[in-house]
Amino acid sequence: MTEKKRVLSGMRPTGPLHLGNYHGALANWVSMQDQYDCHFFIADWHALTSDYEDTSKITGYVREMVIDWLSAGLTPEKSTIFVQSLVPEHAELFLYLSMITPVPWLERNPTYKDQIVQIQNKDLSTFGFLGYPVLQAADIIIYRANAVPVGVDQVPHVEITREIARRFNFLYGDVFPEPEAILTPTPKILGMDRRKMSKSYNNAIYLSDPPEEVSRKVSQMITDPNRMRRKDPGNPDICNVFSFHNLYSGEKVSAEIDKMCRKAEIGCVECKKRMADYLIQAMAPLYERRRHYEAHPELVEVVIQDGSAKARNVARETMTAVRAALKITL
Ligand code: TRP
Ligand code: SF4
């Protein structure tokens, strides 16, 4: 058997996951589980880089995120699922990498430059926030990952990771493969208000929303803004509800809706009801797995602890090689 390529990715625990996160990342991770040796982790230390003043929510978010992941179909039988702070070796590698990372590489990181300007309600002029990509590099290369599935916004971080890995190898000898970003194809999921679905816009449908809540949110969706009255023909091409039909209702139904909408043969209320039914049907397996884990919180603890112990074994092994390369071997 040829060895499977190793994949690693992570998320910061900043709150419950919505359909945008599902289609933009999670669904893709789930589909990689058979083909790759997958490692998925929750970057709770990274959450500290911006939320260091109030740390009270992080641990709760970590547990909820693990449940979101398991409900979406990640499984500890196929993937190593773990939490960053339970593998303190990340911090040791972060320290060594910080010694060899030139500050200008971090200062010119586009994500850093954007956030320093955009986020005005927090003081982000900290060492930790500047060093975010160094910690991320440690997260990735400590597992000697070959590939990192991420959205476009994370590509600069993977690029810095490659540069840091290269520099380490050049200075101390070949320890790390250079990981590649695998760009997740992301269908653009809009929220109820037609803006990008996002927690901060308060327009999201969450994986943890029960069916009644999903129906209620769908009923509030803005449709074709030019369709004022029931008897007006609509334009599905610019209707958000229709883009959900495309995702969830199947080709036949979508084609039917498209036709009826253009001839005003269906009203938006009815159209939304039909879409909500298909969406809820698609979410049924997620609801079922969620119910199972919510009824057995001790199983979630086991996933976290066992996964982290497994990850830690891999991380320890790498750190032995790192210390040998650095000649820190007392
Ligand atoms: N920076 C990533 C994000 O905000 C989270 C993250 C931390 C990560 N470490 C990682 C992603 C390592 C991939 C690999 O989404
Ligand atoms: Fe959108 Fe459906 Fe209304 Fe047409 S009928 S505008 S597709 S919600």
Tell me briefly what this model is.
This protein is mainly alpha-helical and 330 residues long. Helices cover 56% and strands 7% of the residues.
Describe what you observe in this structure.
By secondary structure, the chain is mainly alpha-helical. It has two domains: 214 residues, Rossmann fold, CATH 3.40.50; 82 residues, Tyrosyl-Transfer RNA Synthetase (Orthogonal Bundle). It is 56% helix and 7% strand. It contains 14 helices and five strands. A three-stranded parallel beta sheet has the order 1-2-3. Strand 4, helix 9 and strand 5 form a beta-alpha-beta unit. It is elongated and about 80 Å long. The model has no long low-confidence stretch (mean pLDDT 96). Tryptophan (TRP) binds next to strand 1, helix 8 and strand 4. Tryptophan binds next to strand 1, helix 8 and strand 4.
Task: List the main descriptive attributes of the protein structure presented here.
330 residues, Rossmann fold, Tyrosyl-Transfer RNA Synthetase, 2 domains, three-stranded parallel sheet, two-stranded parallel sheet, 5 strands, 56% helix, binds tryptophan, binds iron/sulfur cluster
Which ligands accompany this protein? tryptophan, iron/sulfur cluster
Please give the domain count.
Answer: 2
**What is the class of the largest domain in the CATH system?**
Alpha Beta
State the strand order across the main sheet.
1-2-3
* Structural class by secondary-structure content: mainly alpha
Number of helices: 14
**Second CATH tier, the architecture of the largest domain:** 3-Layer(aba) Sandwich
CATH topology of the largest domain: Rossmann fold
Q: Largest beta sheet, briefly?
A: 3 strands, parallel
Head-to-tail CA distance between termini:
38 Å
- Whole-number radius of gyration? 22 Å
Which spans have pLDDT < 50 for at least 5 consecutive residues? none
Shape: elongated
Average per-residue pLDDT, rounded, comes to 96
- The CATH superfamily title of the largest domain: HUPs
Strand residue percentage: 5-15%
Number of strands: 5
Helix content: 55-70%
SSE sequence, one letter per element: EHEHHEHHHHHEHEHHHHH
